[in-house]
Amino acid sequence: MNTTVKGPDGKPRCGWCGSVDEFFPYHDNEWGYPVDNDIRLFEKVCLESFQSGLSWRTILAKRENFRLAFAGFDFNKVAEFDERDIERLLADEGIVRHRGKIEAVINNARRAQELVAECGSLAAFFWRFEPARKGVAAPQTLTTTEESKALAKELKKRGWKFVGPTTAFAFMQAMGLVNDHVYECAVRDKVERAREKFKRPQ
């Protein structure tokens, strides 16, 4: 896979954008920018869990359907889902119909409520796992890190499901806990400036 590809403006982007054109808006406007919104953080954990064994293209194409199906990923609402909701979701052709993953989202919504009660917000919890700046590996050379392993281990201990170290690292890349844009990418500096300005949740 090439390190970079030309974006719509002719400037270089991370090579994975070259797979399909719809990756460019996601890459340019979302991927890697720091997030402290609990709903967005929960959504991303869920979508990364659904992606397990599938492509991100599949999940991104269905993202709006997922949002409709799961009450906008408002975990306080999803925590109230019951067996009727599971059957409804299993019949929804607009999402990935995998019982284990659907049940995991509902379970994780309840665990998210517990985390908020303990830590004040999901953001305050997740940002504890931001890697130190020193000794960071070259972008997009890793699929797991010590921090993603620690995050996955802590979530598992707290009863979360379908969030292993690889899923945790993909979540960290997307939500800006690391800037994993390749050095030549035209978006990398924008993301870095956003991270510098970002106020880490306490």
UniProtKB/TrEMBL annotation:
Keywords: Metal-binding, Zinc
Cited InterPro entries: Adenine_glyco (IPR005019), DNA-3mA_glycosylase (IPR052891), DNA_glycosylase (IPR011257)
UniProt keyword Oxidoreductase present: no
Gene Ontology BP terms: base-excision repair
Residues holding Zn(2+): 14, 27, 181, 185
SUPFAM superfamilies: DNA-glycosylase
Domain of life: Bacteria
GO molecular function, one term: metal ion binding
Keyword DNA repair: no
Name of the protein in its database record: DNA-3-methyladenine glycosylase I
Organism in which the protein naturally occurs: Gilvimarinus xylanilyticus
